[in-house]
Amino acid sequence: MSHGDAITAPFWAGAREGRLLLQRCARCGAHQFYPRPFCLACDHDTLKWEAAAGTGVVYSRTEVHVKVREDLVPPYTVAVVALDEGPRLTTLIVDGDGDPGAGCEIGDPVEVLWRARAEAPPLPVFKRSA
Amino acid sequence: MTRNVWDKRAVHIAGVAETALGEVRDQTELSMFAAAAREALGEAGLTLRDVDGVFVNYMGEEGSVQVAEYLGITAPRYADSTDLGGAAFEAFVHHAMLAVAEGRCEVALIGYASRQRTRRFRNMAGSPVDADSLAAQFQSPYGLPAPIGHYAMMAARHMHAYGTTPEQLAEVAVAARAWARLNPKAWSRDPLNVEQALASRMISTPLRRSDCCLVTDGGGAIVVTTAERARDAAKPSVRVIGAGESHTHWHLASMPDLTVTAGAVSGGEAFAMAGITAADVDVLQPYDSFTITVLLALEDLGFCGKGEGGPFVSGGRLAPGGALPAMTSGGGLSYNHPGALGALLLVEAVRQLRGEAGERQVPDARIAVAHGVGGFNSTAATVVLAR
C-alpha cells in the first residue's frame, strides 16, 4: 500500500526500507526536501531520488510540556534538523532506543532512526550522535 | 520629517470601532461585527448603505460574502477575503488604499469578529490538517504544538544566535501589561513584573504562559475612504501613507531563517511608500501573539539591528514612558486577542493619532504603525498612518 501523494510516495517507500531519500537535481546537483516536481534551486524538471547520509545538525529545538498527540507523552523534544546535504526537516529527538523524551542542544550532531507506526510507514526521527 | 511618496488620491481611515470584547455570550459573531461596523461608519459620517467595498475573512465560508449579506450589502463593487491570518487586516488596508485611490470603491469596510474563547475553538494541536497534506505527512506526526511550538523554535534559534534571554522576552509581556493597566477594556490588568513572568508555566521551551497572547472574544471594524466622503466625519480621520505585505513559509522547516520574518519585506515596502524610517514612528502596534513575535518584528522593521531585539526591549523601552510606546492597548498579550488581532491594532493606532486614548495616550503621536502577523509567523502586513 503506498503512502503519501503522487509526488511524495517514493519518500515513504524509502522509509519502509529504512532509507532517508531526498530529491537531487540532475542538472545543478541541489538536494531538496519536501519533494516537488521541479528543482527549487535552478527550476530544472529532472530530479532523482538519492539516499541521504542520515546525519545532520540541530538548527533549533523546543521541549514540549503540553499534550499534543495521543502517541507522545510530554515532555519531549521537537527539532528542526539541517541535514548534511542541506535541506531541513522537522523531527522528533529520541534516545538510543528510539524512545521520545531525550533532549538536545542547537548545534548537536544527530543521526536518523526510524519510529514504527501502526497505520503508516516508519517516521524518520533523530538521536544525538555518539 | 516624512516625505510621502504616495502620489495618488489621499486615502483615510475615517472610522474605527471595537466589537464587544472578552467573553461575549449575548451576541453572535455577525451581530458583534454589525454593531462595530455601524459604530465605525458613524464616526466616519457614513452608514452601511454607503459601503461599496467589503474586506472580511474568518467569519464563515466565502470570506466577505456571508457578512455582507448580513449587513444588507448586496452589491459591493469590491470584495476581498485575503487569507493572511492575523495580518489580513493590515493587508486589507493596503488593498483598500489602492482600490479607493483608483476609484474601484469609495467606502471600504474592513473587519472581523470572533467568539473563540466562549466557543472554545482552540487546542494545542492547532487546526485539523488534511490527512494527505504535506503538513500531515512531514510535520504533524512530530507533535509540535501549534502555533506556539513554531514561535518557540524561532525564539530558541534567536537565543542561540544572539544571546537573547528569557528576561528580555519577559520585558515584552511586562510592557504590554503596564499598558493594559491603563486601558479599562483590557482583559488582564493585574500587575506583572519580569520575575512573575518567569515563574509562569513552561509550555514549549523557551516560551512560558506569560510569553503567550490571550484567547478572548473580540474584533473590530475599520472604514477606509476618501477625504471627501469623510467630510461629515464626527472625528478627525487619519491618513494611510504606506502599506506593504509579504509571507515567507508555511511549514516550519521551510522558513529560510528562523530569525527573519516577512516583516522585513512588508515593513520595507510600507516605510518606503510612506517615506519614513523607524525613527519617525511615534507609536507602534506590533502583533504580540507571542513575546518573540514583537522582538523579531522590531528587528525586521528596522527599530534595531538583527539580533539586537533583546537589549532593545530592555529597561521598559516599549512600556508607558519608554522611548518607543508599543502595544499601547495592552496588546494581544494583555488587552484582547480574538484569534486575528490585526483589526484591533488598527483601531488602537487610529485612536492614538486622534489623541483619544485616555490614560494611555502617547503625547503628540503623529505617525503610527500597525504591523500584523499571521500563520506561524508566516505572514506580515504593515500599515503606516499619519495625522
From TrEMBL, chain A:
Pfam families membership: OB_ChsH2_C (PF01796), zf-ChsH2 (PF12172)
Origin: domain of life: Bacteria
Ranges for domain ChsH2 rubredoxin-like zinc ribbon: 12-43
Record-linked InterPro entries: ChsH2_C (IPR002878), ChsH2_Znr (IPR022002), NA-bd_OB-fold (IPR012340), Thioester_dehydratase-like (IPR052513)
Domain ChsH2 C-terminal OB-fold residues, every copy: 49-115
Gene3D superfamilies in the record: 6.10.30.10
PANTHER family: BLR3430 PROTEIN (PTHR34075)
Protein name per its UniProtKB record: DNA-binding protein
Organism: Spongiactinospora gelatinilytica
UniProtKB/TrEMBL annotation, chain B:
Name recorded for this polypeptide: Thiolase
Entries under NCBIfam families matching the protein: PRK06158.1
Gene3D superfamilies reported in the protein's UniProt record: 3.40.47.10
Record GO terms (molecular function): acyltransferase activity, transferring groups other than amino-acyl groups
Residue ranges annotated for the Thiolase C-terminal domain, each copy included: 244-387
Naturally occurring in which organism (per UniProt): Spongiactinospora gelatinilytica
InterPro entries linked to this entry: Thiolase (IPR002155), Thiolase-like (IPR016039), Thiolase_C_2 (IPR055140)
Domain of life: Bacteria
